Amino acid sequence: MQGAHVIDALERFTRAVNRAFVLIASVLVLGIVAAVLREVVFRYAFNQPSIWAMDGSRFTLLFVFFLALAPALESGHHVHVDLFDPVIPAPLRWYFRVVGYVLTLFFGAVLFWYVLDTAIDAFETDELSFSVVPVKLKYLYWIGPIGVLQFLLTAFVQFVRCWQDRTPRESATPLAGH
User: Per-residue b/e over 127-162, b at no fewer than 16 CB within 10 Å?
Assistant: First the structure.
């Protein structure tokens, strides 16, 4: 079946990209920790605060957020509501999972639209950030559409896998990673 090979390849691709995103985001988080630690020591021990630590940490956190969207969805650590999972009859659980993935795809598409529009605007206007350390917004906003597009690809793969697995689940575990 040709479609199965395509979804298998897409799943391998999204998993590989998500692993790379996790690695990059982890290194960036370590950088934030180092910058904040350096700032605390220099500010309170030597009375020499920097002008870049807060802005640099804030800018880096933007990258961490968008890099972590898809891996969090893939690993099931995204925000989801599982309060009603145990009361949903087993034969209906698959339908609720499908609806959850459809809503996740819809949310991702809307988020992608807005983030892409903001990034395009940043490239067109070439504006600077309102911060102590001025940075062109295009150097900050380009990661948004990339992170959300990977989120959409991951959600699509999960939706297709859910669609292929039409067996109801008996456990009271969360229905989907959304």
Answer: eebeeeeeeebbebbebbbbbbbbbbbbbbbbbbeb
Closest CA to 158 of 68, 95, 74: 74
Domain assignment present for 158 = yes
In a domain, 178, yes or no: no
Q: What is the DSSP letter of 87?
A: G
Per the structure, the complete domain to which residue 26 belongs is given by 2-164
Domain count of the fold of the chain: 1
Report pTM: 0.85
Give CA separation, 89 vs 57, 80, 167, in Å.
46, 19, 13
Q: State residue 109 phi and psi, 5-degree precision.
A: -65, -45
Which tens digit of pLDDT belongs to each residue from 120-169?
A: 999 999 999 888 888 999 999 999 999 999 999 999 999 999 888 875 55
> Angle 169-172-174 (CA atoms, 0-180°, nearest 5)?
85
- The total number of residues written for the chain in this structure: 178
